[in-house]
Design goal:
elongated; three-stranded antiparallel β-sheet; nine-stranded mixed β-sheet; about 500 residues; alpha+beta; binds zinc ion; binds magnesium ion; 16 helices; Arc Repressor Mutant, subunit A; about 40% helix; binds adenosine-5'-diphosphate
Length: about 500
């Protein structure tokens, strides 16, 4: 590992240089079986329990293409506005690595299934940036190695390594952008927005859950700088396997600052792969890659070419779901919110839960309020996605209904949500168990108000003489007496009524 890299400030870097990016995203498809054999793709199985002669590359075994894998690739291509190849082949990418038992990866080389597309991505301020797509091709994942005995978990310093081939052969789609130019100082934001949009798209297509934290979607970030005004691209670095949206943004930013320092001091950028470190937000040198590696690609002789009929492609095109950007525009209008608010909902991963909550009967503003407020906070604290919280949209909708009908105020609703989250049951059960319904019984409320007036004669006198604002103190007293279970607005009305003041 190199010592700390020299950096220049982000502003200084951008004052002198123009960033060019290239993003390569791998998506693990959610097919039931692997790309070229019938082995299960289920996660969490005993190591090496989901393998066969084909995915282990044993002599004499023959691969067969997974039709669902091809269909998913075409759907992704179509959603990315790509052309779909009429005929294309797989190719062998030859190299040795212990996690790849065949000694070659079955991939696509000069004949990708989809090419020449674009994806429009939404930036924070509602502006749209078009990212051009070079290609989307089919390939397979490698196995997983675990290095034992070293301090870092990396191979360096390890005593021995374990290999699990369950992942070897799981279908991957690699989506490669054309060089992204013109983003300027917004390059980190554009990179993050692109990966976010791509993730939403993949999920909408139903071809993968695209959970970055589980490695189902990973991004390689290529970056180079050129002097402002120059046409030719500089030398790029390639930061591998960046595993979260935030890290994509940080990796771009860091590399801009690092490249700028090198260039400004008269040095040059080495073409190499780099590793991103979540803890420091920095990258360190990996493998030097000055010349293109020679993988001795050749067409895979054991697989027939893929030749999707135009009818099939058209049918898939006609069955594409509403794409995320279009859907967001529609929801933004329906919910009557700003670009910025919609962006926050997107960033929080809250669109689907909110829609499901509305579908379960909640008013849009209520659904949005709870998912973006209390629940987003909880998810954030626990470091999980919103959808991983142990509460369902139906339960949130019930909380909303109780608030709307006046049985719960916001404070009580938060407690109900808390109860659901810790496993006390459905909202109604939590209300019962914790005795959380607001005191709406007018008799009980009236008594509480009378007591508050009696105990605060001076305040009551002020209110009688027209200082309506002083009612707050009495409302507070009633809320305290009822353990926060009263409807504050109604309490205020009662106080003013009893003191003979018009509100
Ligand atoms: P490799 O196999 O070496 O990773 P690819 O062509 O598959 O090469 O991917 C390189 C990625 O980097 C693409 O997204 C491409 O658009 C982008 N790219 C190519 N040249 C540059 C450059 N000079 N600066 C930044 N990005 C680049
Ligand atoms: Mg690459
Ligand atoms: Zn297999």
């Amino acid at each position: 590992m190199t010592v700390t890299e020299e950096l220049v400030s982000y502003e200084d870097a951008l004052a002198a240089y123009d960033p060019v990016m290239g993003l390569e995203v791998h998506v693990e498809l959610g097919t039931k079986t692997k790309m070229f054999c019938g082995c299960s793709t289920r996660l969490g199985a005993e190591p090496n329990s989901q393998t066969c002669p084909t995915c282990l590359g044993l002599p004499g075994s023959l691969p067969v293409v997974n039709a669902t894998g091809v269909e998913s690739a075409i759907k992704i291509g179509l959603a990315l506005n790509c052309e779909i190849a009429e005929w294309c082949r797989f190719a062998r990418k030859n190299y040795f690595y212990p996690d790849m038992p065949k000694n070659f990866q079955t991939s696509q080389y000069d004949e990708p299934i989809a090419f020449n597309g674009y994806l429009d991505v939404a930036l924070e301020d509602g502006e749209t940036f078009r990212v051009h797509i070079e290609r989307a091709h089919m390939e397979e994942d490698t196995g997983k190695s675990t290095h034992i005995g070293g301090a870092t978990g990396r191979i360096h310093g390890a005593v021995h390594s374990l290999l699990d081939y369950n992942r070897a052969g799981i279908p991957l789609i690699e989506i490669v952008t054309k060089p992204i130019v013109g983003a300027g100082s917004r390059a980190p934001e554009v990179a993050k927005a692109y990966v976010t949009e791509l993730r939403e798209l993949i999920r909408a297509l139903g071809v993968s859950e695209a959970r970055m934290e589980m490695g189902q979607m990973r991004c390689d970030v290529n970056l180079s700088l050129r002097p402002n005004g120059s046409e030719t691209f500089g030398t790029r670095s390639e930061t591998k396997n960046v595993n979260s949206l935030r890290s994509v943004e940080r990796a771009v930013r860091f590399e801009i600052q690092r490249h700028a320092a090198l260039l400004a001091s008269g040095g040059s950028v080495v073409q190499e792969t780099r590793h991103f470190h979540e803890d420091t937000g920095s990258t360190t040198s990996g493998r030097i890659k000055e010349e293109a590696e020679d993988y001795r690609y050749f067409p895979e002789p054991d697989l027939v070419p893929v030749a999707p009929s135009r009818e099939w492609v058209e049918e898939l095109c006609s069955r594409l779901p509403e794409l995320p950007r279009v859907r967001r525009e529609r929801l933004k209008a329906e919910w009557d919110i700003s670009d910025h608010e919609m962006q926050s909902v997107l960033n929080a991963g809250a669109i689907d839960p909110i829609v499901a909550t509305i579908d379960a009967g909640a008013p849009a503003d209520q659904a949005r309020k709870w998912w973006m407020g209390e629940l987003a906070r909880r998810a954030n604290e626990d470091g999980v996605e919103l959808t991983a919280l142990p509460i369902t949209p139906v339960q949130v909708a019930r909380v909303c209904a109780l608030v709307v009908e006046g049985s719960l105020n916001d404070k009580l609703a938060r407690q109900v949500i808390e109860g659901v989250l810790v496993g006390e049951g459905d909202p109604d059960q939590v209300v019962d168990k914790r005795g959380l319904a607001v005191v709406s019984d007018e008799g009980a409320l009236g008594t509480a108000v009378d007591e508050a007036i009696a105990g605060n004669q001076a305040v009551a006198e002020k209110i009688r003489s027209g200082k309506v604002a002083a009612a707050g103190a009495l409302v507070g007293a009633v809320m305290k007496a009822t353990g926060g279970k009263a409807d504050a607005a109604r309490v205020r009305e009662l106080i003013l009524e009893k003191l003979g003041v018009q509100s």
